[in-house]
């Protein structure tokens, strides 16, 4: 949970908007894609090429 909050806070700072706004946008996107948790969203991001698992450190 801490990592999620840190990422949300960082994104909010960069975009100069509220962390709650970020959370609401993420929720809306996940609902539209029929994705139910962050793990599913990660799998989707890998599938469409937004995330490259080869770049992760072991």
Can I get a quick summary?
Helices cover 66% and strands 0% of the residues. The chain has a domain at 1-36.
List descriptors.
single chain; 58 residues; mainly alpha; 0% strand; flat; disordered N terminus
Shape, per Cα inertia axes: flat
Strand count, sense and barrel status of the largest sheet are:
none
Beta-strand segment tally: 0
Order of helices and strands: HHH
> Could you tell me how far the N terminus lies from the C terminus, measured between alpha carbons in angstroms?
21 Å
Helical residue percent band: 55-70%
The poorly predicted ranges are: 1-5
Mean pLDDT: 86
Class of secondary structure makeup:
mainly alpha
Number of helical stretches of at least 4 residues: 3
Strand content: under 5%
Radius of gyration: 13 Å
Mind explaining what this structure looks like?
The protein is an all-alpha fold and 58 residues long. The protein has a domain at 1-36. It is 66% helix and 0% strand. The protein is built from 3 helices and no strands. It has helices spanning 2-15, 19-32, 38-47. Helix 1 packs across helix 2 (19-32). The longest helix has 14 residues, at 2-15. Mean pLDDT is 86; it is low at 1-5.
